[in-house]
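Protocol step 4 of 5: obtain the predicted structure for the target chain.
Materials: sequence only (see below). No template structures provided, no constraints applied. The aim of this step is simply to have a reference model before the mutagenesis design in step 5. Sequence pasted as it appears in the construct record:
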Amino acid sequence: MAAICEDNRIDVPHVLNQDQIRGWIDDGYLIIPDMLSSAELDELKQDLVAITRGKYPSENFKPLPNDISAGDAIANILAIHHPHLISPVIVKYAKHPKIVGALSQIVGSHLPWWDGSVKCMQTMLFVKPPGFQGQAWHQDELYIQTRDRSLTGVWIAMDDANEENGCLRVIPGSHKVGYLYPQRNHDDPNEFDGNEMSYGFDESSAISVVVKAGSVVFFQGYLLHCSQKNRSDRFRRTLVIHTMNAWSILPWSNPDLPVPSTGDRRAIIPLSGIDPYAWKGIVEHHRTPYLRRCSANTKALPPQASMEDKK
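Step 4 output (structure tokens):
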């Protein structure tokens, strides 16, 4: 029956105060230090290696030879898209109680009658080894569209992130007007990966988001952000989770969906509150995890190398 489903409500703790929520609404991003413990970070780092070694069955991640070290297994990878499709560890962190608790307070905080319901549709593991490129200025809602401007990224710092190894840069408040800036080629493959660059705005107020490992950065889907090349001698590993208001349908690109006004991708993970469209069911994602490449991929990639894609 096509009726709002209020069964199986997921209750989560509230972890933010009103000043943090107001800062999120005004700035479009929020930093919470020490949200993950060192043991949790170690679990994520170990799972990253397990994925690249082919621990989980996947057509794009085949088992690697035993003589390849953990460092070598990840040394030529910029990012892995959709690791949650094969890894229960990534799903565990998408559902992390503290993270989801914060999401239940901010994702739809600009909507007066929002009830805290949130769903997840994408994850990405960024490895960003030394010498690997960042991503030019962009807004995530260009790639993952919501109906209510509720797209919210979760950026979990697995390593200390600073300007040297290519931390996030943001333009505070750039989400407010709800304008999606046009894009063009950036013509700087030494600095950025192959994704296009947004343009037409003033960058003078941009700031670097310098954080310690275990910090979590939340950022709004219309917020202009970028990251630059890793110029250090260490990794800049990050787990990125994309979420949105569960009451919004998800007209994200998929050849099997109808027109965008009614299309609703149901390859999701309910995180908090209710899933109003549960009557539609939850379907398998139409893709498998794959690698994003950049110009630093000069060595032969491991057997699991696949296509690159935008978010």
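Step 4 remarks: Helices lie at 18-27, 38-52, 70-74, 88-94, 97-106. The chain has five helices and 14 strands.
Proceed to step 5.
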